[in-house]
Each structure stands twice: as C-alpha cells, then as structure tokens.
Amino acid sequence: MIELDDVHELVDPVVIAAFEGWNDAADAASSAVDHLMRVWNARVVGAIDPDEYYDFQVNRPLVGTDPAGHRSVTWPGTQIAIASPPDLDRDIILLRGIEPNMKWRLFCAELLAACDDLGGQLVVTLGALLADTPHTRPIPVSGTATEPELVDRLKLQESTYEGPTGIVGVLQDACGRLDIPAVSYWAAVPHYVAQPPCPKATLALLGQLEDLLEASIPLGDLPEDARAWERGVDELAEEDEDVAEYVRSLEETRDTTELPEASGEAIAREFERYLKRRQGE
Questions:
Q1: Pfam families given for it (predicted)?
Q2: Whole-prediction pTM value?
Q3: Which domains does the chain have, with CATH numbers?
Q4: What is the pLDDT of residues 201-241, one digit of tens each?
Q5: Which parts of the chain are beta strand (E)?
C-alpha cells in the first residue's frame, strides 16, 4: 500500500498519468506531466515501492549529488503529486513514473487505490506512439474513453485497437473494470524523428487537456521549442533528398485524407484555446 503524506481534502480532483517506456514515444507524454508539475508547482505526496515492480538491471538506479553535496541513489519508480492550479476550480493528481517490469495488475491496483484515497473523480492517461505522420502538420492526437457520456462530450471514440499494450492500456482497463471514468489521449510522433524530445507532440497533448479541463495551461517556452524542433527537422530533411521526398509523400497523404470539416474543427478548437489563454493572461 502506498503511504501518502497528510493532504487537505481535494476538490473534485482529476488524475493525469504518464509513464516512460513503451507508451511514451519521444518522451512526449511524460514530458507533458513534467511540464504540468513545474507550471502548477505540484507537491509529491507519495511513491510506489520500486522493489515490488522494477527490475533494477533493466531500469537501473542513478547515483548523484544532492543539493547539500551528499552522494545519494535515486531509485526508479512512480510518484504521486498534487497540484491546485490557480485557473481551475478543481485539484489535480499527477502520476509520473516508469512502466513497471512486473506485477502490472497489482501496480495499477495500488495506484488507483491511492487515487481513490485522494478522492480522484476521473483518470486521464497520456501516451505517445510512432506513426506515419509528417512533422510539418499538426500532431494527430487520438482519444478514447471508458464511458459513453465522456465519448460524446469530448467527441472521442471507443477504442477498436487489438494487439500488444503497455501499462497505459492496462491502467485504462483497470479503470473500466472498477467503473472509474477514464480518458486516454495518444499523440502520434513522426517515426523518422523518434528520438526525444518532441515538444510539438507534448504541446498537442496539453491542448487536449485544456479542452478536457476547459481551462488554459501555462505553456512557457513550449511553443517556441516546438517551432525550433520543426525547423531543425526541416533542415535535416533538406540535407537528404530521399527523406525530403518521403516527407512530401506523407504530407500529400495527410492533406488528401483529412476531411475539410475535420480541419475546420481543429482550427476552431485551437482558436478557442488561444482566446482562453489570452483571457487568462
């Protein structure tokens, strides 16, 4: 059982979770939660016991020096943090960790029990996968939910994916079995630039969270980082004609298969986010 610090009663909290590993192409999902922890000044209130779930020969502990100058070992694991964003009328529970190596069902049960103790009302998992998508276009984000009401309200879809899954899929399944409302967002990272980071994909995931929470999230340097990332990939593509031709073919496929009304909806959503952010500032 996860031991939690003393926490005041949270207001209608939403759980937002991301895990490094198979679910986290280019570190896009875990970077989104890292960003939220920084801009919302999140406080860590608990952590899962790593001895139960991690193979330390696969996920090795790190040795380093703490701020006081003492040598210390940092163990791989998963932390639980809480935040009270000033622009929201509800609190946030953040789960940030590494996909475990064993006992996945028990791992999910422990995390969900801790979230239940904190009063979690909705679980949102973030993931990222490699896909045939061009870096020059908006990063596609697919979303699924466990309840029809969420599917309708957020204009999502019920997942039809069949195949291998990671801890995000297992956690989503556990939520469904326990009748916990859950949403999952996945960003599609261009597979030809799979190395982290991918700030454009992180930014796309944060945009979906803004829609769900109906509030703006401080973005800091992320928009400029995303533009710099795209310019850098442009320069790399220009140096190799085969890569440049491949990118052009992906652009043509994307532009011809994407429905005009879908593009219009995406532009409208982005404009609404922009207006909310301006109002917040």
A1: PAC2
A2: 0.89
A3: 14-280 (3.40.50.10900)
A4: 999 999 999 999 999 999 999 999 999 999 999 998 888 88
A5: 14-20, 43-47, 62-65, 71-74, 78-83, 92-98, 122-131, 141-145, 182-190
